[in-house]
Amino acid sequence: MISFKQLPLEAKAAVAAGVVFFSMMLSRSYLAEKLDLRTRHWVLRLQMALFANTLMLMGSLHVWRSTVTMFTRSSAANSFCFVLWKIAVFMFLALAHSSFFTLLFLVAEEPYFFSLAAYTCLGAYIILIFFLFTLGSVEQAYKFLVGRGAKAGTGNKNRTAMKPVLAVMLTLVLTVVGLLNASQPPTVNSVEIPVHKLPSTMNNLKMVLLSDIHLGPTVGKTKLAMIVRMVKALKPDITVIVGDLTDAEAEIIRPAVEPLGELDSPLGTYFVTGNHEYYTSDVSNWFELLKSFNIQPLHNENVKIVSPKSTADWFCLAGVDDIEADVLRYSGHGMDLKKALRGCSSEHAIVLLAHQPIAAKWALQERPGINLILSGHTHGGQIFPLNAGAYLLNPFFVGLYKVGQNTFVYVSPGTMYFGIPMRLGSRAEITEITLRSP
User: Fold this and answer.
1) Are 73 and 82 in contact (CB under 8 A)?
2) Tens digit of pLDDT for each residue in 395-425?
3) 82-127 per-position pLDDT tens digit
4) Among 117, 223, 280, 311, which residue's beta carbon has the most beta carbons within 10 A?
5) How far is it, in rounded angstroms, from Cα 267 to Cα 305?
6) Is 352 helix (H, G, I), strand (E, B) or coil?
7) CATH 3.60.21.10 region(s) of the chain?
8) Angle at 94 between CA 91 and CA 98, to 5 degrees
9) Do 222 and 386 form a contact (C-beta atoms < 8 A)?
10) Which residues form a coiled coil (predicted)?
11) Which among 396, 245, 369, 236 has a CA at the least distance from the CA of 315?
12) Are 184 and 385 in contact (CB under 8 A)?
């Protein structure tokens, strides 16, 4: 039987990841009620950072072997430039690994440069791993097709050496493009949605949808102030924020949230939790902070949005807690659609705020009569190559979907980004929704 010491480094990293993952599940199952909220918050975040790093270690070993070890026998291995290259690759990997720990130690009103650099390296790391794997697979397929009878020659060695060079070049180009795309203000996407049973007096009601702002290590007060200015310029009747507003505790990042107090939609501003609010373990304080800015959290509850033209006309705006609250066993929280829709008459239009598209799917299975569901969470994948995974894992990905005869689901690609300050294959968005009466 092979001992742990005899295992290759990649296998050791996989075992470590398994141990950390098991400890996370154990914490959720058995320690949730024994630890106070603040301690649980730190334990959970530390475990998530360690789990991500142990998984990344396998990829980092592959990156090092592909970009450094492969060239140690070349004529340039003893040159000063090669020494600089080894230092650069090591620093790149170290920054990528440190990104997850910035959530614990480097969150303030504005992002620290270190956090921006670390998360940029994380984004580049993901792209580089993809290209190394893809080019390696192409190389193996080529060898299989030409047959093993061909002798390894200079041409084969050159092709092998070109693989990491090409992967690094593609990564550099896409990283720059991704950074430039994410640095642009969110695009304003105007959408018209017919809402069954919406009163005629509320035809052309304008609603602005925000999602996934992720105030934290790489998004601060300046970007939020820009978003608020753009929303105010649209002059919406109502503004809704469908989760993942923050990645930090309310007390730590309160100064960055102040621009939200300038939102002044006449029919109100409303908020529902996303999964990242529960990762902060500080939801109650966030609710109080948002209320101080005249933003109403919808905690499995609803409000009547009354027509400015007739007090007899209204529709029901409901919001549910994010489904991650159930997974984390967050006391007093969890998706409860029946409670959220209590008092919503079937004779009136129902608009539901639910952060994750899977929650939208579950809501429609339980209550097919909901007329419109607004979600976020997917980020449109945010960066290539994560787009494919986000598409496959969510029943609704990005944009407008018609479900059945009178129901629509709209999924925002996010108003900012999570951590990695890059966008590839997706675009940050402020959604301007015009509700149409049939």
Assistant:
1) no
2) 999 999 999 888 999 999 999 999 999 999 9
3) 889 899 999 999 999 999 889 888 899 999 999 999 999 999 999 9
4) 223
5) 7
6) strand
7) 186-436
8) 135
9) no
10) none
11) 369
12) no
